Amino acid sequence: MTATFLQCPKTRLDLSTPHVMGILNVTPDSFSDGGKFFNPTDALKQVEQMVADGATIIDVGGESTRPGAQDVSLEDELNRVVPVIKAIKQHFDVLVSVDTSKAQVMEQSILAGADIINDVRALQNEGCVEVLAKYPKVPVCLMHMQGLPRTMQDNPQYQDVVTDIMAFFQQRIEVLNSAGISSSRIMLDPGFGFGKTLAQNYELLARLSEFEALGLPLLIGISRKSMIGNLLNREVNQRLAGSLAAAMLSVQQGAKIIRVHDVPQTVDVLKVLAAVQQ
Ligand code: 9MG
What we know:
The protein has 278 residues and is an alpha/beta fold.
């Protein structure tokens, strides 16, 4: 049975109903909204809107993870995310996750008030497991990625996309458990678009319910991604309908947190689904 709540530093997140995580990229170059919320005032306005629209988590990211993205220095990433996390926690009653793969950014973000760590590299970078082990109330999302953002779409290969990702998760869960990080703090994310072909992404979406066997909450990010654009032949700003369909299919198969750009529309879709499921 998958856990029905997630313990965060100051609250318990009830997972009996799905949550919408609003994306806040404080980067100049993210694929969909790069540069839009780089200025802290614009960032806070966007947070206010996402919270009003029903987001219960805001995912703050200071490094673009789109295919081909350039690395960001530690100093730049800290300067981007830490003041924004502090300001969000000061002004809004909302959970904040930080999307980072750097141990120092994780630690400074936690000290600034971040509730959740979201790592597309699943805590594989040096020092990350140790930082999480030091803060026993902070949960973490481990995402699967084959390769690295700059080259991950070159020629992704799997024997079986679901089985291979499950094996990766099992291995990472063991590493974290051995370091003292209990499974009750771990969420999993198969990493749509991160080292996967179009066919592999849709196979993953079709078979998402198989991850329930691991018994940990699933977080899903498909919003406006290329797997929508390439299937439908749509530019980034025309991918709403495809993203909503993917969100609904994910929640129907057990996903607990949906990471999105379009908060109010996703909240509506999940309300319709909940009405049917009741
Ligand atoms: C930061 N980021 C970009 N895409 C993502 C996804 O699909 N999942 C998670 N957890 N983080 C993501």
